[in-house]
Structures are given as C-alpha cells and as structure tokens.
Amino acid sequence: YLAVSGMYWGLTALDIMHMLTKEGVRHTPLVEGAESEAEGESAADTPFAQEDVVSFVMSCYQTVPLETGVGGGFGGAPKHDVHTLYTMSALQLLALYDSLDVLDVAEAEGGKTKRQSIIDWVCSLQLSDGSFSGDASGECDSRLTYTSLAILGILGVDMDMRRESGEGERVHIRDIVRADQVVGWLARCQSVDGGFSVSPGDESHGGQAFVTLGALSLLHSLSALPSPTLASLWLAQRQMPFVGGFNGRPSKKEDVCYSWWVGASLSLLSSWGLVDGGAVARFILRCQDTEDGGIADRPENRADAYHTMFGVAALSLIKSSGTADADTASLHVRPVSPAYCMPVHVCERLGLTWQVLDLDL
Amino acid sequence: MHGVKKSAIPPTAQELEQKKKQVDSFRSLINGLLAKREQGNMNPKILPHIGIALKYNPEHYTLWNYRRDILTDSMSQPVTEGVEAEAEGVDGEGEGGGVEDANVSAVATLTEELGVIEAALAKNPKVYSAWHHRRWVMDHILARSGAEDRLAIVHKELDLCKKLLTKGDSRNFHCWNHRRHVLTLLTRETQGGRERERETAAKTTTIPSIDMPLTLALIESDFTNHSAWHQRRLAIQQILTERESETSGERETVDMEFELDNLMSGVSMEPDSEGLFHIWYWLVSTGLSLSGCVGAEAEGVLETQLETYMPLYEDEPEHRYPLLMAKTCLFLLGRQAEADALGADQAMNTHWRLLRKDLSSRQ
C-alpha cells in the first residue's frame, strides 16, 4: 500500500549516496561532479532504470471526479486510492528521474494536462480551517497540509508568499488556494512549549515539527512563527545524552528517523549549533545492519528503506550544516533540501526554493 | 517499521514457506477486493472480507475508504435526528416511522463498525487511517441518534480511550488526539444546541472535571508521561481562562501550590526531563498571571521555587533542569545578572540563551 513511497525512500537514499543515474542503480558510486555515465557497466544490469520507474509510478495514477471537473493523483500502488502522501512520493520520484514532463500530456477525457489535474485535485482538498486533507475523506493533519503544499511547489506553482503574484507566467499559490489562511493555521500548530502538533492544541511531536516548518519554509513564511526561539530549544532538547540520537517527544526513545524530522527542522532554523551533530551522525552509523545492509530505527533492529533514507539524508544535512566532525564532513553524500526532502541538484533543476531562518541569539 | 529486533536465528525454510503462503493468500484476497472496488461493487456482503484483510494489514488505507463507500451506499436514508439536521427534514420517501427504522438500522451497522476498527487497532493501535475512519463512524452514529443516546455513545467512546491509554500505550498520540475530539463532541452535547456555544465547543479539547483526575492518576503512576501532562496543562489553561457561562455548573479550580509541588516531586526524580520543565515554565511564565497571581504574590511564589531548585542544582549540577529553573526564577525576579552568571560555564548555556530571549520577549 506504500510501494511508491518505498521506492522514493530507497532510490532517493541511493541518489544521495551517488549510486543512482537515469540508467538505474549503480554498483559503484559516481565520483563527485559526475551526473551520469554508467562507466564500465552494462546498462541492462542496472535495476530501477528511468523507463521502469516512470512506468510503475504512472500505473499508480488515477483521475478523480471533482465538482469543477477532473482531478488526478497517485495512490500508494496500482489501484490504490489517490492520496497526497503517495502523490508527493510519486512526484519526488519523477523529479529524481527528470521525468515530470510525462505529466504534461493531456488526460484521456478533457483538455487538461495531468499536471493541471493534480493541481486542481490538491486545491480541492483545502478544509474550512485552512489546512489540507490528504484525500476527500477530510482528515486534518499538518503532515497532509505539508504534502499538499509540497506537491504544488514541485508542480511549478510559485509558493513564495513574499510576492503577491507569480513570477512571469507562473501561477501563484495565492491565486489557487486560501494561502494566508493556511499560513495562519500552520502558525497555530506551534504549541506553548515551542514544539509542533498534528493540529492546533495537540501534543508536540518531532515529525510534526518537520512538516510544519517545512510547509512554512516552502511558502517563505517562517516569520509567521509565534516563537522560533522556543522552537529551536524544543528541537535541541530532542538530543539524547550519551546515545546522541534524537527522540520525537519528551521521555521517548531515540530513533533514526528523527535524525531527519528533527534534523531538517534544525536546518530550517539554522540551529545545528545547539546540538552535537557528530553524536547524531555516530548514532545513525551505529544503526547500520553490518551484515545485511541498510539502517534501522535503533542499533540491532531490522533495517528498512524508510530508516535508511532518513538516516542517509540526515547525514547529508549534518555534513551541510557546517558543524560536522571530520568523519561526517568527509562522507560522500550529495546535499539535500531540508524543506522538500529531495536532493538539492533535483530541486535546482526544478527551480524550487525554500526559506531558512537565521538563529538570532 | 519500528522496534523490530533482528533475530539472531534466521527463519527456517519451513517458516519462510508458511509466511509466503500467508502473504500470497492475503495478497490474493486484497487484489480481489481492489478489483471489486474498481468495478464499483458496493455489496455489503463484501464488508466481512475487507475486515479480514484489515486485521491482517490495518494500514491499508484504500480498504478503509472502500468500507466507507459501502456503508454510505447502504445507509441511503437521510438523517432527521441530531445536531446536524437541517430544518427541511426528510428528503425522499417514507413516513417518519420508516426513516426512524432506517436510522436505527444504520446506527446498529455503524456500532458494529466500531468493533471492526477496535479489532484492527488491537493489531496496530497507531494507524492514522483507522483512527480517522473511527471519527467518521462516530460522526455518522451521532448524526442518526437522539440526544440521550448521543450522550451515552460519547461517554462510551471516552471510556474506550481511557482503557486504551491506561491499559495500553499511555503515550499513543493517535488515541490522545481522538480523545480530544471526543471531548469536543461531549462539550457540544452538554452545552446545548446554540450556534455560538457550538462554535466554542468546537475549539474545546478538554473537560477539566474529567481531565484533572485522569491526568493526575496517569502522572502519579509515571511522572514522565508527557502526554498526560500536556492534557493537564490544557485543562489548567481552560479553567484559568474560562469566562462565566450561563450553563456553568460546578467550577473547577486550580491549586497552583499543588501543581508546583507535584512538578517538584517529578523534577527531583527526573531532573533531566524536559517535559516536566516545559509544564513548569508555562506555569511560572503564563499560568501564574492567568490565575491572578501577580506582583508581590507572584514574587513570593518565585522565591519559593528558587529555594526549591537552587539546592537541587547545587547538589547535582550535572543535571539540566534544576539549573535552568533556578535561572528562570532569578530572571523573573528581576535578578537578571545573577540569572546569567549561575552555572554559566555549563553546557546548558545555549539553552539558557534561548530561554532568556523568550522571557525577555514576554516583558
């Protein structure tokens, strides 16, 4: 039910590690600076080549009826219902393989492109309180608000709220959704303790910190935060003494995936200096399965694609943070966007931007 | 996946074969169901099969969607009872009696549905789509039930949440979030049907008369249960900010001394618990003034707090929060230079600089 996300986790992790090209997964890493060329390898040997990935992703696409016509989205697997969680993963994969143009073909019925169908569907998901649901069922959760906004950004909508209208020919977020209302809703997800919750009033949680800050960042609206200072403190408090990894809430255990949820949040608030990045990196590396490969949630547990992705991506963030120790600074990993959770080279190709707030102490 | 230990003993060929058979069997069941969905098949007889698939994999969100579609299709009689009812009344065939029967039948079906969800949650209590489906079911049951029944239904749901939190994982945020939603429903039921009150009820995620005793019991059994502390803080905040209401009965009160003493017990046992610190910080920086404790009275409270936490820090300076609490007290008492100087060489200094900035911004 989450095949598309599983592929996104695995293939993005490989790309960060220089192990992916359009021809597929490499057996040896690319050297720094190289973009493609499966040198010395037969292209037929490499799994997850562009054609196969795009074909699978598109088999997860469906149109959905909207009041205003036709919408579109992706499910987690073929014949699974459309949902923004899997639509985001699908688009991240297409972007990774530089294949978003497959969405610029017209739908079978009507003159719209698939790209436009998806945009229209996401816009229809805005709830009366300003947040976004993940599908027609109306579930309210900041994760789903984040995925909806990220989808619009990846599809080329101008998300920069510092502007009143889109640059050049681009549609602006203000033109298609109630943008100020969603910014207000996101800001209300900050709790009195500085953390962020599923919806206003709930308990603060590390995962929600990432989606709230990420959403505000891609809207260039972090200044709407009631207290960036307490947010930085709450995030810094996630680091477990001795173990070095991050937990997701007070008095819970450390977990590799929070290296990303908390780590990306720290990146967005320029707050890596408040924690020991080297200790986080060493924790992630201790969670590797040295027999079968991959990274698990905790040392000696079973590895999976999700924790591998977020462990590798977090290592990249630590390297980029300027606070890495010598070992982490020398890791052969590509930079990652802390707002889009996509490799920076992919974001640059799409012209995606995001905001990073300075830490003003 | 979380918390799955890598087994030192690899599975046997037989175990792998059995597992493969199980996976193949469920995959076949699920593919069959998805094919029926694609064909638009809304036969209620499919529901038990979907239930089996969901017990195997409660995270299969498409199958929860399918259940909702089948249930919606089968409950085709419109609603006449409930807060959501429109004044126009029934749209379609039938006398009042026919519609009532349909509502009763729908409620019975939906009540069974709650059982299906409970079974899935027993397998995995942290599935977003299962909890969301439960909310949908609750909304539809309430929309088809009379006022007395609604109260009973909401109380029963609250009891289920209490059971799951006290006997299961007391930090399950899905359950706490659902419980907050149920408290909103209960507030709506007990505060009458007027629009203004319904709007207020929609924002109310705590009922202090229920939450204060429940959270105290949870906290006393585990001081690090920050989910319970969070709900307690919401209840305290509600009590302190509530205006006089026409329908107000007994008013809950907050005993600040008790709350601060309780926190002190917690901090002395868990001096590195940031959860306790945040509740305390909210109480001294916001709660005190909300409760009307200002000026010299507030200073008295802060002095007592300082006398509590300074010795805790001095005895064991390696712990985080007694130091930060002593510094906070000094700052709020106007002794800012002393606040900065205390334990300035400690690693907690960056955390203090953030707190200091926050405290300054409130002045």
The stretches of 5 or more residues of chain A where confidence is low (pLDDT under 50) are none
Gyration radius over CA of chain A: 20 Å
Q: Largest chain interface and its two residue counts?
A: A-B, 49 and 50 residues
Strand coverage percent of chain B: under 5%
Shape of chain B: flat
The portion of residues assigned to helices of chain A is: 25-40%
Mean pLDDT of chain A: 93
The amount of helix of chain B comes to: over 70%
Structure class of chain B: mainly alpha
Keywords (chain A): Metal-binding, Prenyltransferase, Repeat, Transferase, Zinc
Protein name (chain A): Geranylgeranyl transferase type II subunit beta
GO molecular function (chain A): metal ion binding; Rab geranylgeranyltransferase activity
Pfam families (chain A): Prenyltrans
Describe this structure in words.
The complex is a heterodimer of chains A (361) and B (363). Chain A has 361 residues and is mostly helical. Chain A is built from 14 helices and four strands. A two-stranded antiparallel sheet of chain A has the order 1-2. In chain A, strands 3-4 form a two-stranded antiparallel ribbon. In chain A, strand 3 and strand 4 form a beta hairpin. In chain A, 40% of the residues lie in helices and 4% in strands. Chain B has 363 residues and is mostly helical. Chain B contains 16 helices and no strands. In chain B, helix 4 runs antiparallel to helix 5 and helix 11 runs antiparallel to helix 12. Chain B is flat, with a radius of gyration of 27 Å. About 4% of the residues of chain B have low confidence. Chain A: Pfam families: Prenyltrans. Chain A: Its cofactor is Zn(2+). Chain A: This is Geranylgeranyl transferase type II subunit beta.
